[in-house]
């Protein structure tokens, strides 16, 4: 972990503990925001043109959302967000270190479409949870608003330490509104879903999902990762991707 890692804002940690999510504005500068925005939209356009889009179960019966999976392999510049100093500071303050990057994806929410399925990101982990076993750090490449499909959450639902039940009444959800360039941090236990976009323009966000190292990553990095990242990635990045295991995943008892 870098020696220059920033301090997590106290107000953000308080909100995360109380509500299950927090927003930190202004993390991305104008130039880097523009670069990430242009890169993602170029990749998404290519996928549409080539028919590479895949249906995602949580999106229900609609194609309104366009997912871009294994984002770091599609363009290695997104690795910088995976090991962004503030992201790592939140990671260390919530689930600790070492950790694994379970997935790195983008979601472009297009006009209309049905609401996403209500879920918690760690819903595949055994209950009761008692603590976050994962943390989702999202990056707003467009502003997140109530009208354009901002992620909607059930504040305080993480304190229930379980998933939402299908036979339960749908709770009140509130949109996480944030400007472009902001970072969103969502406790793995927090109930949430993508909102419905009622505007004419798409809304894009990047989502890096980190977990405790005892869980198999959702993305099989050993098969899908761009070899360039394996060759040139930092020790921190390779630890997150499982190539520098410190607890499990050793070779003949040793860290590889």
Can you tag this structure with a few keywords?
256 residues, 8 helices, 6-stranded antiparallel sheet, Jelly Rolls, 3-stranded antiparallel sheet, 9 strands, alpha+beta
Describe this structure in words.
The chain has 256 residues and is of the alpha+beta class. Helix content is 25%, strand content 18%. The protein has eight helices and nine strands. The strands form two sheets. A six-stranded antiparallel sheet has the order 1-7-4-9-3-2. The longest helix has 21 residues, at 30-50.
The first-to-last residue Cα distance is 18 Å
The description of the largest β-sheet is: 6 strands, antiparallel
Q: How much beta, percentage-wise?
A: 15-25%
Uncertain segments are none
Order of helices and strands: HEHEHHHEEEEEEEHHH
> What is the approximate shape?
globular
Q: What's the domain count?
A: 1
State the total count of DSSP E strands.
9
Secondary-structure arrangement, i.e. CATH architecture: Sandwich
Q: Tell me the name of the CATH class.
A: Mainly Beta
SS content category: alpha+beta
Cα-based radius of gyration, to the nearest Å: 18 Å
Enter the CATH topology name: Jelly Rolls
**Subunit arrangement of the protein:** single chain
């Amino acid at each position: 972990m870098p020696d220059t890692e920033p301090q997590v804002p106290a107000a953000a940690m308080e909100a995360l503990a109380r509500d299950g999510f927090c927003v930190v504005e202004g993390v991305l500068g104008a130039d880097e925001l523009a670069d990430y925005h242009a890169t993602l939209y170029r990749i998404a356009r290519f996928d549409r043109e080539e028919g590479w889009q895949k249906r995602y179960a949580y999106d229900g019966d609609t194609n309104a959302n366009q997912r871009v999976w294994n984002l770091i392999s599609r363009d290695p510049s997104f690795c910088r967000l995976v090991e962004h100093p503030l992201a790592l500071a939140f990671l260390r303050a919530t689930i600790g270190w070492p950790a694994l990057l379970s997935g790195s994806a983008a979601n472009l929410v297009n006009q209309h479409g049905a609401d996403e399925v209500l879920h918690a990101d760690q819903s595949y982990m055994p209950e009761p949870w008692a603590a976050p076993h994962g943390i989702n750090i999202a990056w707003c490449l467009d502003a997140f608003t109530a009208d354009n499909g901002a992620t909607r959450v059930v504040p305080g639902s993480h304190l229930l330490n379980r998933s939402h039940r299908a036979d339960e009444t749908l709770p009140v959800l509130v949109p996480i509104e944030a400007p472009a360039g902001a970072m969103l941090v969502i406790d793995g236990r927090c109930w949430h879903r993508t909102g419905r976009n009622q505007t004419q323009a798409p809304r894009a966000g990047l989502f890096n999902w980190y977990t405790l190292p005892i869980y198999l990553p959702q993305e099989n990095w050993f098969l899908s990762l761009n070899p360039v990242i394996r060759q040139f990635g930092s020790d921190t990045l390779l630890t997150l991707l499982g190539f520098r295991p410190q607890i499990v995943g050793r070779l003949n008892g040793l860290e590889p």
